[in-house]
């Protein structure tokens, strides 16, 4: 299992062994930076491999993950950093221009920058980076190209670069390369806090939901029991859901690890990109939302993309009733006219993150 791909990111593969070693390196980097068990590490990234590496690396160090969405505005990110007491922020180099503002008045001591291109195929880095961060042709994209250099070899940020502020800058890849990959003892238990997941704040001030290591394991176990036909080490999960959301954490990232699956990681919700990923990687499990399934069902020539490979769909965030399921899923997987919708064919997820 150690050589099985844990992540596929636009064709680039990271094995379970590589993911384990990389997350160990990140854990050692945090420990060297003074992060101890119970300290908070904020991760504000789209669906890129660095998000998964740093998530598990933070837990291995005994620290607590604070996940923020890159789609949140500055006020929301600042509030989460201040409220959580996070001491480390990992985010994209493209967001450098707002870091000083969101970190002002917080407990942040270290800012780690990474680039969306670091795990992209070399020949497609510029094009795909624009797709991920949505800055094609903008000054932000141009600054990324300038900082990276023509060959993509120049460090984006000098390690431990002096800053007039109260925190230090680091480069993600340099941190990984300069630390050992042996396991780090964290001494955490199932009762210890693992994740602070902030609510959307649509009805009240956002709250940091406190999830223990045990909570995360139980959430995955619940989803696993809804999938009795899932085969350990043989499934491929399509990871379109944001990993900054509890749904994506459980049904994409953590479920994939629990089943020793391959996670096809996508940082975009564009229907054409989702279908291209289905065509090339043949996912067997697709956690999503009703809008995904409707958009795919209505896409021209949808069956040409090999959607019949998908055996299990999980739907969450909004109701998906039997009528809408019957109108959508036959477009995804050809079924006989006598087919009846049953729980083993369609899993409807309706649970909160802290169950």
Describe this structure in words.
The chain is an alpha/beta fold and 355 residues long. The chain folds into two domains: 16-188, ANL, N-terminal domain (Rossmann fold); 213-348, Rossmann fold. The protein has helices spanning 16-32, 49-60, 74-84, 96-103, 125-133, 139-148, 172-177, 213-225, 246-259, 271-281, 290-297, 322-332, and strands spanning 5-9, 12-15, 40-44, 64-68, 88-92, 110-114, 168-171, 193-198, 208-212, 236-239, 262-265, 285-288, 312-315, 347-348. The strands form three sheets. Strands 7-6-5-3-4-8-9 form a seven-stranded mixed beta sheet, sandwiched between helices. It has a four-stranded mixed beta sheet with strand order 2-1-11-10, sandwiched between helices. Helix 1 packs across helix 2, helix 8 (213-225) crosses helix 9 (246-259) and helix 11 packs across helix 12 (322-332). The radius of gyration is 20 Å and the shape is globular.
Percentage of residues in helical conformation: 25-40%
Overall geometric form: globular
> Based on the structure given, which CATH architecture of the largest domain is correct?
3-Layer(aba) Sandwich
Computed Rg? 20 Å
User: Could you tell me the number of beta strands?
Assistant: 14
Strand order of the largest sheet: 7-6-5-3-4-8-9
Oligomer class: single chain
Let me know the average pLDDT. 82
């Amino acid at each position: 299992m150690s050589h099985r791909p844990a992540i596929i990111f636009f064709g680039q593969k990271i094995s379970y062994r590589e993911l384990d070693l990389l997350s160990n390196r990140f854990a050692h980097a945090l420990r060297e930076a003074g992060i101890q068990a119970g300290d908070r590490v904020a991760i504000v990234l789209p669906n890129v491999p660095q998000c998964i590496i740093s998530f598990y690396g933070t837990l291995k160090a005994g620290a607590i993950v604070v996940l923020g969405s890159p789609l949140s505005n500055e006020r929301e990110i600042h509030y989460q950093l201040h409220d959580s007491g996070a001491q480390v922020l990992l985010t994209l180099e493209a967001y450098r221009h707002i870091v000083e503002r969101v970190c002002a008045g917080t407990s942040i001591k270290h800012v780690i920058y990474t680039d969306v291109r670091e795990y992209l195929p070399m020949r497609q880095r510029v094009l795909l980076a624009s797709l991920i961060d949505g800055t094609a042709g903008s000054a932000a994209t141009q600054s990324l190209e300038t900082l990276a250099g023509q060959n993509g070899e120049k460090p984006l940020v000098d390690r431990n670069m002096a800053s007039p502020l109260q925190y230090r800058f680091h480069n993600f890849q340099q941190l990984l390369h300069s630390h050992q990959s042996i396991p780090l003892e964290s001494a955490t238990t199932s009762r210890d806090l693992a994740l602070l997941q902030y609510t959307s704040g649509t009805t009240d001030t956002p709250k940091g939901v406190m999830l223990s290591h045990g909570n995360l394991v139980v959430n995955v176990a619940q989803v696993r029991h809804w999938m009795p036909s899932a085969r350990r080490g043989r499934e491929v999960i399509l990871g379109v859901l944001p990993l900054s959301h509890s749904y994506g954490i459980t049904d994409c990232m953590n479920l994939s690890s629990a089943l020793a699956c391959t996670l096809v990681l996508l940082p975009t919700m564009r229907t054409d990109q989702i279908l291209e990923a289905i065509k090339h990687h043949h996912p067997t499990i697709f956690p999503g939302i009703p809008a995904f399934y409707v958009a795919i069902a209505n896409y021209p020539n949808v069956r040409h993309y090999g959607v019949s490979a998908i055996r299990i769909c999980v739907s969450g965030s909004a109701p998906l009733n039997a009528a809408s399921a019957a109108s959508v899923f036959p477009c995804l997987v050809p079924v006989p006219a006598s087919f009846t919708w049953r729980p083993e064919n369609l899993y409807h997820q309706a649970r909160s993150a802290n169950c």
